[in-house]
Design brief:
Elements (H helix, E strand, L loop, with lengths): L19 E6 L2 E6 H4 L6 H5 L14 E3 L6 H10 L7 H11 L2 H8 L2 H14 L5 H14 L6 E8 L3 H4 L2 H6 L9 E3 L8 H13 L4 E6 L14 E7 L2
Parallel strand pairs: 1-3, 4-5
Antiparallel strand pairs: 1-2, 4-7, 6-7
Helix pairs in contact: 4-5
Length: 239
């Protein structure tokens, strides 16, 4: 739930920077000063405590923010001492964006983990056509096939280059499996390999709470037909 968007009134008295305030953030309690909360004037926290505080209070009179407070402590420590968290970087980054604390956002995005995610991995995935949509389709098909079974297996086709993609019709026609449910990734113009793409697929599905494995689809070779190594079996395990 978003914080209330109140406009400050010039007639409202300012709360002293040294004033101690108690905060209830989603049920977790914090104590700090107004000066700490207003350290970065462009932030939502500074806006909320400019003039008369613009927040509701709980039954104990503490200012209430209706948001998960699990990582608010890291936000507060940065405001107090510029301390940068070493754990839960992505979660703290999400909170920093929500509270619009730009110096913290910038420093978190310079950490190796977020830098790698935002600059390397996400930039690569942006060059893979329909990547996010394909992840959603995979999950949707897997869930549809989950009735009364322990596992759901979906076939994917990964075509690294335009040359590979030119063989798509021949490759798909070589399958004995249901061709209609095959989800195709690629081609892309970036350095990462097919294995890198498969690692991303696994990572992004598992980040949503699913248990998944990916293995090459092995077909019996025949003198009469050509086999292709573009296909992989994505298996969701439900229990």
């Amino acid at each position: 739930m978003s914080l209330p968007d109140y406009k400050s009134s010039p007639k409202q008295p300012s709360t002293p920077h040294s004033a101690v305030v108690q905060l209830n953030v989603g049920g977790l309690l914090f104590v700090t000063t107004v000066g700490t909360l207003k350290k970065h004037p462009e932030s939502k926290l500074a806006e909320l405590f400019s003039g008369h505080p613009k927040l509701r209070t709980d039954t104990q009179g503490r200012y209430f923010i209706d948001r998960n407070g699990s990582h608010f402590g890291a936000i507060l420590e940065f405001l107090r001492s510029d301390w940068l968290p070493t754990e839960n970087i992505q979660e703290v980054h999400k909170e920093a964006v929500y509270y619009n604390i730009k110096p913290l956002i910038k420093r978190l995005e310079e950490t190796p983990r977020l830098f790698g995610e935002l600059v390397a991995r996400q930039q690569f995935l942006s060059r893979v056509p329909h990547y996010k949509e394909n992840i959603e389709v995979l999950i949707r098909i897997a869930r549809a096939e989950a009735i009364a079974t322990r596992q759901s297996t979906i076939m994917i086709c990964v075509m690294r280059t335009e040359e590979d993609f030119g063989l798509f019709d021949n490759a798909i026609n070589s399958l004995e499996a249901d061709k209609e449910s095959v989800v195709t990734f690629g081609p892309w113009k970036a350095a990462p390999s097919v294995k890198d793409l498969l690692d991303c697929v696994k990572m992004d599905i598992e980040s949503q709470g699913y248990s998944v494995s990916i293995q090459p689809h092995v077909t019996e070779k025949s003198f009469m037909s050509k086999s292709y190594d573009y296909f992989y079996r994505v298996t969701f395990t439900w229990w």
